[in-house]
Automatic annotation (TrEMBL):
This is Protein HflC. The keyword Cell membrane does not apply. One of its GO terms (molecular function) is peptidase activity. HflC and HflK could regulate a protease. InterPro entries: Band_7, Band_7/SPFH_dom_sf, HflC, Stomatin_HflK_fam. One of its GO terms (cellular component) is membrane. It is found in: Membrane. Belongs to the band 7/mec-2 family. HflC subfamily. Signal peptide: none annotated. Residues 23-184 form the Band domain. Keywords: Hydrolase, Membrane, Protease, Transmembrane, Transmembrane helix. It comes from Pseudothermotoga hypogea. Pfam families: Band_7. The chain crosses the membrane at residues 6-28.
Amino acid sequence: MMKLTIIVTVAIVSILAIVLVALSLFIVDQTQYAIVLRFGEIRKVISEPGLYVRTPFVDNVVRLSKRYYIYDIPVEKIITLDKKTMLVDSYAIWRIDDPKKFLESVRTVSLALSRIDDVVYSGLRNTLAKLEFDDIVTGERQYLVDITDFAKKNLADFGIEIRDVRIKHTDLPTENQNAVFERMKSERQSIAALIRAEGQKEAQKIRSEADKQATIIRAQAMSEAERIKGSGEASATRIYAEAFSKDYEFYKLLRTLESYKSIIPNSVVIVGEDLSILEQMK
């Protein structure tokens, strides 16, 4: 009986020891922070993975993730510099950077998201209020850097690191869409009309210059043609003169025959007996 009692006692003590050891040891994963709390007070912050010891029934271990979160921020209304209301759908990439500050200030991820929502909205409102609607929609979005810096600065005291703030898309409230679209359409039509007018002006300038150049070229061509014609006539006169001086009778005969070609064909000619041109027909 005594032996059985000893065995039972040893078994109970062993079980209690195993339970005590199991309650004293805890494992920290590489993707986690571990914060050891004693009666609600932070005793230790563990950021390295491994096996650690705590005081059973006294210490409580809270684990927080080191990973980045993507928070899809609810759509907010923003008023731009030119007094237009727009809907901004944005998101933030964030993580817990200082677990001690995080646990002391916001304690839970849900409360952290609420704080991020407030800070990012303030950054959006303050930054976009300095810009006009067209610059926000069609610009290079350099303003996102300012919004991200604003969020980083204001959330650092809560142990939160903001990696980036981005806008998924912007839209107009339903009641404003038609008016804004009509205004944008009118502006684009005005710009198109101005571009067409400038194009027509440039085309007219090009046509005028082309007409001027064509006139100059024609004048130069006519001048060259007259010069060549004059040179040809001078050469012909010189040749005729040389031929006349060599054989006057033959030259007279040749010129008379050429005259017949232009007078007699297809015409009626009335001549007198004394017309010298008929001497060659005898």
